[in-house]
Each structure stands twice: as structure tokens, then as C-alpha cells.
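Job type: complex structure
Entries:
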Amino acid sequence: MSALVAPMPSSAIDQDWGKVLRWGLICGGTLIAICLVGMPVELDRRELIERYLSLGYVSVLLIPILIGRIAATQVVLEGFESRKQGLYDLVTGLMVGLLGGGCLSLLMLALDSWNLRDPLVNWSPKLFRFLTYENGMGFGAGAWIVTCGALSLAGAALHVVPAIVRRSTGTVVLSLLALSILEGAVDDLSEGFGLDWLTDLMYAKKGGLTLTSTIVVGAVIAVVSVLTSGRVKAATNRYRDMQGAERQKASMILFAVVAVLCIVLPMFLGKIMNELLANVGLFLLLALGLNIVVGLAGLLDLGYVAFFAVGGYTTAVLTSPNSPFFAPELHFGFALIFVVIFATIVGLLIGAPVIRMRGDYLAIVTLGFGEIIRLLFMSDWLGPYFGGAQGITNVPGVDLGFATVKGTDPRSVFYLVLFFCVIAIYVSWRLQASRLGRAWMAIREDEQVAEAMGINTVSAKLMAFVVGAVLAAFSGAVLAAKVGSVFPTSFMILISIIILVVVIVGGMGNIAGVMVGSFVLIGVLGGPKQPGLLQEFQNFKLLIYGMLLVFMMLKRPEGLVPSARRSRELHQEEFLQDAWLKGDKSDDDADDEDAVNVGDGGGEEE
Amino acid sequence: MTVDRFLTFIRVFLVTMIVIGLLAFVWQQIDADNPFARWRNPGARGLTGDQFKGLLISGLSQGSMYGLIALGYSMVYGVLGFINFAHGEVFMVGAMTGFIASEKFNDNGMWESNFLLCLALIVLMAIFFSTSLAVLMERVAYRPLRNSPRLIPLITSIGVSFFIQNLVLGLFGPSTKSYPRLPEWLSKQRSILTFEIAGTRLMVLVVAAASMGVLWYIVERTKTGKAMRAVAEDKEIASLMGIDVNRTIVTTFAVGGAMAGVGGILWGLMFRSVTHMTGFLPGVKAFTAAVVGGIGNLGGAMAGGISLGSAESIAPLLILEPLGVPGVSQLKDAVAFTVLVLVLLFKPSGLFGERLSSEERA
């Protein structure tokens, strides 16, 4: 292998074999783990490109590409001359992939010789058949070693090829993936617009793109991406640089487009897509509330689901005729008033004892409260009032006079959710820039300093709790009206954590980020019980959520769509370092933060 | 301040409820037919002495397991200053390892014929896997975040916990795993000092005490322990004194993981069922125990665990039932969290005082 080693500007000639070995083993370990979790076999049913590629294979094949790319990433230190990326990195990628493929072959060998079905539920002949392409051990092992090597090489090559090639291949592959994965959505949408013939042409009958359409669409996208390269970025930059009235005008146009889309689009969508949008909206509402508590005020509330439950139960008790103790059968609109009142009370009750605690204690105690509220709703003690484990059923929909919003008509639910989301977005947007919002951010950054500056930290924090609680309670109220019943099991701690993931992946403290987060996560992967666009991922989404949370915290704590202020806080040291290296000449260069890690920009395609 | 007044009110309210509950309990013991006990809950009956002892024993044995898990929380918090939320999952992995190994032993008959050897083996295996998991976690997830704001590692550990839970779910399936039955000679009822105690619980108590002893020896009497205490006190100065801080932190995670592994085995042997969610509630409660005992304080963690366990098993019947609450056993977990809130309201530094490093104390 030493013949292939690239000449380097420095004296170090040979590969850093320790690093290669480490990444190779990581690659192999990830591949084996994915296989044993059962992802490939279960996802194999979903065809992406008819007869050639299934989602199962994609889930495995993506790993060497990603890891090859990461392994070949060069850490560039500002102020140091760095090596030009070239053959050296390709060799790294190739070796990592070969090692990963080797590990996978070992798994195949093990699958062939032992039966560990007993503890490992996915240790099955099916997995073996999947891995060997039903062509026997030798072929399978060889094929995987070669493919993993090649893919990892390709991943590493992404660093080496010119930017335009990288960008256009990236766009083509991602948009083809998106097209095939989002087949359901595209189908539904085109049906609404009367473009059935196009999708019939593109997709095969049994699902998945046809081979010809893959090639044609890929070519079209490639041409488009080459032609438009740089334009999108320039447009966003222009928008970012706009000032004052000009920017306001641009924002208004953008807002109007989004508003029209939100109102018009659901009319063309089918039931499933509307249901999905309604779920996204419900979680968006929750996430916007949690964004105020966690993102703005910096209070890690893990029992956020408690407020969701309060909203749901208040609505159910006040509107349902089946409420066991007290059933005034109010209209949803009147019930909302009480939802706000109770959410405020519970927000204050939970908030007051925890407000003085250290941040991490607060997290655990709120987690405890979230669990206590569910246990209380479930217990025999409060059973006579709230129905215990049987919950409260028969919650009527929202009677608007001209229409009734009910779960059976997801479109109407979507509009209802949209109404609340608009309120929530407006409230968070106005609050962010208000005195209170600035107080929250000051507390998040440094509580003692904030207090010294004359901010009443206790009341500011309580306000954060209350605003968050009210938004969550709205979401709960809509959920009750949508599903038509509430059960204690609908309010598991899991929901709190999923919303936390949504807020963090999207970008803490940024409304746009939270919206992106809920669309990407809840829309594509799905909520705790609600399926997303990738229904096949039902069993794996929690795994992915956990992984995403760790990954984001390690690599991009400010989220996909960062709020400028928050990311500056999180990378304070790097900013100071940069400022020092640049001789402190410009400190308002907010978007120039890619100095430390070159391979950091992976998230911008979302 | 209104908030302060409100907090005072909460304190007074909680204490009053506890006192009324205790008084009502006494009345109920004297006269089981008193109107207060029958007020809301006609089924309520006082406790007999034997019942009380039984509750105490079950509370103690459960609490000692909380204590074993709490040690890990406490040590990590003492050294790094963040809650390793995923520690409950380390415990769960220990229990899961024990299940897989013991089931294999049961299949080839060794479990019956040579139980003590099997027990030693599964404990060793559980310790091995839990320790490796804890160390891996530290290396992959926590080390890169060592100097970031306090909440970042906590959120990361929530992610790690979620990830491990679902990885175990994916690998081993959602079914409840039941440990094989313990041999008769061990699990039979024994009578010690008028306490009727099941052999399993006795074993739990003995093993927990022994592990605590070993831990105490490591931390207080060995050089590694001394390094751990020094790092917990002040990382920077410790490194100036020639202590390898990274290695010491890894050791801390490893020791905590080993304790959780032992705890997991005991849990499995006592309750005989493990799922991927086994780690969540015990984990949170163990953290509660660590706070109750004073975080960073090892003896405190164990004592906190035992008091939390006893409170959880006794308080529902002692305080809640006399107050006319039906179905009190469902409120066990709520009691544990209430204890946490109470301790944090009255004495945030825990019953035995917290020991934190100089920078965490600020």
C-alpha cells in the first residue's frame, strides 16, 4: 500500500494507521449494529429504484460513504499551513471502507456458522440472505468488501473533487433520494393538482422510481444544479445583507408566499398528507412553547408533557359528555379560556418550586413532575374525576358553525392547528425582541450577571414557564379535539424528549429552526405514535432521535438553523480565538464561523 | 417576594400533610374503625407489625439497589459536574447481560447444579459490559464536551440514554425477559431477629453492602481513589500534581458502571424481569437518592438510596392511606419524586452534605 501514499508537503509520508484502523472499526461496528437492529431487513420491503435499490440497502450503503467522508476530513487549524487534500485522503477512505466491509463479512461468517437467534432477535437467515444477495457466502463477502471500499472511497473523494462537482452530485443524489423516499407525498400532491400522469411515468406500480426515470430526473437535476450553482446562496446572502425597509419588504413577500402556501396547499392534499401536516402542526406548537422555555430562557424542562396533558384533560373534561365527574359540555372556544387559566396555574405551580434550582436539578425535577402528573391522572385516587386508565372518551370536535373540526377530517384539524401555530409564532416572534425576551436571553447566558443588571430573574423565568405551558396546553386541547379522547398513556415522558430533540435539531432559540426541526423530524420520521412519511422507520425512529440528539450536541449544538446569538454563545471560545488570530480587526462577522472544522457544513442541504 | 411566600406556603402545606397523615395513621392504628380512616376509603386498614416489617425489608433491599446506582451518578457529578442521565441505561445493560448469561446457564443445567459459580460469572460479565459501556460513553459523548456549558452534556446524556434504550430494544426485542428461578435453598424465607426475610432480599442486602465496602476501600484507601478525590476537588490542581485527569475520570465512570452492573444483576434476580425500559425509572430515582444523600458524597448516596427505598415503600401506606387516598400503591413513584422536591426545597445540599469540586460550588 505504501506505493499509493500521496506525497505530502510535510515530512510525514505514511498514513496515520491508528486513525484508519479506528475509523474502519467504527465503520464496521456501525454496519454490524445496523444489521443486528434489523434495519436493512425491515426496510428492504420499500423499493426506492424499482428492482435495483431498496431502502434497506440504502440504509447500509450510506454508512461507508458518511464514514469515509468523516475519516478523510482534515482538521484545519487557522494560522497553520494545511496539506492539500488528495490521494492521501482517498487511500484513507478506501482503507476505512475495506475494513468496514471486512467486519461485515465476519458478521456473515458468524451468521452462517452459529445461531444466536435467542438473545439477538434479528439474527436470522433473512439477514444472511439480504447480505449475500442470495448468492452464497463468498460472493456476498467479496461484494460487500468491494462496495464498502468503493463507497467509502467516494465519500473521501468528496473532499478532493472540485466544489461544483461535489455540489451537483450531492444535489442529484439527495434529491433523487428525497423523490423516492417522499413518494407518498409526491403522489398525493400531484393527484391534487391533476398531474397523475407525471407520477405514473416516474414511479413504478409497486413503488419506487423506475430506472429510466431515475436517470432522466437525475440528469435534469444535475443540469439545473450546475446552472443555478451559487445563485441560491447569493440570494440568501443578499437577503441577509438587506437592511431596514428593504428587508422588511422582502420578509413580507416571503411571509405572504408561505401564508398562501399554508392555506392553499392542504386543499390539494389527500387525507394522509393532511393528517401528517396536522401532526407536524401539533408538535410544532409544542416545540414553539418549549423553544421559549429551553431556547430563550435556558430552562431545561423535561416534564413539558405535563402541560400538554393539562390542556388535553381540561378540554376533555369541559367538553366531553363522558367526563366522569363534572361534564358541563362547554363549547371548545369556552373551554379554551379555562385551558389558558389552568395551564397558567399549573405552570406557576410547577415553576415556582423549581425556579431557584440549579439548571440540571431543574431538568430532573420537572421530569419528575411530568411523570407525577401522568401517574395522578392514571391513579385510582383521581380516577373518579379523570377516568383513570380508561381516560375520557367522546370528546366532541370543534363546532365552528359552518364546519366542525374533527379527527375524521384532518384538513380542518390542520387549519385549526395552523391558527394556533400562527398565534404561537407571532407571540414568540414578538416576545423575542421584547424586554422580556431579552431578559430571558440574558438569564440564559449568565444568571448572576442578569440579576446584577436589574432583571427580576424569578418573574422572568416564571413567565417563560407560563408562556410555554399555555402553548403546550393549546396543543393538548387540539389533540383532545382531534383524537376525540384522552388517555394517560398519550402523555408519556417520551413526548417531552422528542420535542426536545425537535427544538435542538432545528436550532434552539430560533423560530425558523424549530419549524424546520418539526417538519424534518415529525414530518419525515414521525412523532411518538404518529407515523411520518417514512412509515418504514416506525421501529427505528427513536433510535435515530437519540443518535441525532447526541450528534447535534457534539457537532452542531446550535442546530440546523442556528440563531446567531445562540451559536455565538456556544462557540464563544472559538470566536475569541478567531478574533485573536485576526488581530481583533472585525468582530461583527457573524457568519464567518467555519474556521475550525472544514467538514462542518453537512447540514445545509436540509 | 410572592414566589418566596408561595414556596413557604408549599413547605408548610407539605409538612402539614405529612403530620396529619402520621397522626391519622396513629389514630387508625388505635381504632381501625375511626370515621377519618373510613371517610373516603372504606377499604383502608391499619398496618400490622409484620406488614410494617415486610415493607421495611422490601424498602431496604430496593433502596440498596438505588444506592448502588446512585453511586455512579454521585461520583460523576462530583467529578464532572453534570448528571449522567444515561447511567440508568448502564444499569439496564448490566441486568440484560445477566439475563442472557443466566438463561444460557439455565439451558445447560449449570444454574441448578452450580449456582454460586454461575452467579459469580454473571456478576463478572455484567460488570464487564456495564463498565465498558460507561467508559465508551465517556470517551465518545462526554469527553469532547468537557468544557461546554453545563446543560450541554446533560442533553447529550439524555440522547445517549434514548439511543441505548432503543438499541437494546432493536437488538433483543421488546419482550419482557424473565430471569430463571433462583434455587430453593437461596430464595426460601428466613427469620432473622423476628424479621421474616426472603433469601433473595437478604442476598441483595449482603451483596450491596459488600460492593459498598469494596468501593469504600477503593476510594478511601488506594492511590486511584486518592486521585479520584483530588480530581473531584479541583481538576486543574490535580493535573499539576501529576495526576492523569483523563484516566481518573475514566476510572470514575468505570467504577460507577461496575456498581450499576452489580445493581442490575441484583435487580434481575429480585424482580426476575428485564426490558429495555428497566433503566429509566430506577435511574431517575437513583439520581433522586444521590441528591437526597448529598451529591458527590458516596456514603450519602447509599444512605439516600436506602431512605428513598424505604420511604417509597412505607410512605404510601403510612401517610397517604390514612388521608383517605385509594389505590396508594400506584402512587409509589409519585412519592419518590415528591421526596426529591421536598429535599430540594428544604435542604438542596442533601441530608449528608454535598461534596463538589471548587468550580461546581460557585
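Summary: Residues 70 and 286 of chain B are 5 Å apart (CA to CA). The longest helix of chain B spans residues 49-80.
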